Amino acid sequence: MRTFFLSLIVGISVALMLIRPRNIPEVYWIGGGVLLLLVFRLVPLQLAGRAVAKALDVCLFLVGMIYLSELAREHGVFDWLSSVAVRSARGPAQGCLRWVYAVGTLADLHVK
For a surface tag, which of 90, 93, 95, 112 has the fewest beta carbons within 10 Å of its beta carbon? Predict the structure, then answer.
């Protein structure tokens, strides 16, 4: 029965995250599901703490990448890169796809 409620809360949280009723951000749906799992003791607090500690470096990396991509979007980097790719293609869609792939590869190499 415990597994059923755990699966139900997780499933509903993920569904609400994907649907986003009333344009409420995803973090609230998932965060609410996590709180329910902890309040109803379906996931032990120590286990949740260990999971957070294990994933903290990955989470901080993702937060940093999201922050950088948002800064790039606000400053028009993606718009500029797409205009360069479209101008450089000069013709069929395959040429444009090649330039988009090349720019993405160069951006990925630069990040590493």
Answer: 112
